[in-house]
Predict the structure.
Amino acid sequence: MENELIPTLEESMGLDSVSHVDRNRLQNELWMFLGRKTLHYTMGDSASVPVEKAEELMRSIVYLMRLGLSFSAEASLERNSVEELHALGTQAAQQKIALAKDLFAKVRASQADIDNLAYHHSLEEISLFFQRYDITFLAHDIPCMIDYPLVFSPEGLEGITYIMEYLTRLSREAVFLNNFSPWNVRLLLQAYSRDYRQDIINLYEPVAVNAIGLVALNKDPLGLHISTKDCAQLKELFLQRTQEERADIILKAADSLTKTLNLSADADRYVKEYALELSFRLNALIKAGCALDGLFLSFEAGEEADVAQVVLEDGKVMSDEQLRDLMEELRFAGTVSGKITLVKEQVHSMQDLLEILHSCFWGEDAGELLKTLTKEEQEVLQKYVAGKREAEPYWRSNTGWEDCLQCRDL
Amino acid sequence: MEKNKTLGISHMQLAQTVSELQNCNGMTERFGLMLTEQQIQTVAQKRVEALCDTGRVEFGRGIIKDLIFAFCDSPYITRENYFETLLSLIDSFYYFKNESEDQIPDEELIAFMKRKFDTVCQGSLEYLEGTTLEELCRNTRYGYPADDDDLF
């Protein structure tokens, strides 16, 4: 017979430390405040609402009260009324929205250059969040569909708090990923999941695993490729150790990796937090007698050969029309990795490569393409540039691609 | 503890409703309509039950006073049937708030109920609930226009 199960303030906020008097006061204030909020929600049109709607309005009020309590050191359930805490929480939420928008702009600007539907779709959805977020009535809600899974999902958070935390973690993952060539990341992801573009997978994890594994073997992490021989060495490294020793090796490798990549303190902590999880996985695999080649991934040898060889096989020059069509496609390719794929598939001569470099690859994009060439091919290009400058000391291409040949990390 | 708090809130609303109904008697008396103390308690309890049955929660003074003021001058409500009619109207009101998916404001729904009760339904609650209000809510849910003189 009782009317509904709108959660009491006690259930929502855990009032164990609050006196009986304050508890009753707060419960009554909350009921009255919920009544006013409901009237506001219905614009005075309805004195009653479905219980589910009242519950949602209540959750929003309690969410903002919690936010208010954490926003101000002086705020407390004993000292402040429900309305005061709600107002403080609203102020806090508005500040968080502004910060989240800034953070989102930064995340957008530094997003990982990888084709993954869930990743890019989730970014689009977050932009819609800011349009849809209703701080007045549904502050606890997250009105968007975020599919992309982070390596550490923000659990138990609501509203703008969730979005802030999600963006913060996404930013740390992107900062890490952007240290690696998108080409190498693509190859690794293909080994991780053939349909990585469509699959809902976390992009950070396979890259972090391989990078940490390579550092544990005192190898350069940027290549990302762990060969069969490397994998055998890793097995030998970990097999006869205790769990604590394995964790120590992994954490030391993670520490070395973050220093190599010169990561910020937050991104550094994130890598180390992941390294701990990795050590648990490793222990479980070894305990179960599983091979480590499912954890530390190799690219397929064929793919590597493709990357090294397909670009330059002199003699297979494209016709003018083919070259024009390719340049047009490159203009509209969405990502650098997409452009590089097109070059890989269609360019097979030095002559054509030079045409493409002169017209279609600017700045860092050129660097990414050059990273996919073999040392011999890069040397050929260097000789080309040297020859040009011998004839014309101040020669410079339209795009400035030759500057990237001098980059240390090629 | 939780049940006690819910009971506490229900008691407040009951007391408020009882007080309002007592005041309403002062207005409806001129139409020959009065509720006894026992009937007042029953009507107040009916409100709580109807809200519970329809899964709704109501704040403030609610709509009973508005229902009474709207219907008290109906030619089809007499001293003999006032109490039972009021109970049925309370049930109908909350039921059709749900059926209309809250798209019809309280004031307009009450006005519609009164207008149809006095005209097309000729005082029949069965006709009001089974035909007229069903049709209104169906039209509202599907976005069809109501009759020309509906809602106003």
Summary: Strands of chain B lie at 56-58. The longest helix of chain B spans residues 2-28. Residues 1-8 of chain B have pLDDT under 50 and may be disordered. The radius of gyration of chain B is 16 Å.
